[in-house]
Amino acid sequence: MQEEHSPEKLAQMDYEVALNAVAGHVQQEGYEIAGGEKNMDAPYSLVLRNTKGLTAVKITANRAPAQPTYSKTQAEELRNFAAQNGIDTCAMAPVGLMPADRDQNGNQGFYVKFEGLVVI
After folding, report:
1. 5 pLDDT exceeds 80?
2. pTM (two decimals)
């Protein structure tokens, strides 16, 4: 029997799936992860480092049929975090999740839609 989760718990779980997907993607693009935050309510998700310096990233996750998006408030909170920490570049990472089959342990699988960082 599958465990029922509250909407807040599901949102946090979706965020963690998106966080892992984005982390893997940006590492393949040559970024180093300098810091991270697993709490979806934090003003940032990742701090990335490459040859151009640091980038603060906020990941957002939406389940289909909703499209990957982010709010002006989330962008402003990220900008404030970056300013307080001396980080010049900010980027949003909107992620779309579409449920897929469950694995043998009953864990929900997802198709992930991520089209890259959106510099703000």
Report:
1. no
2. 0.88
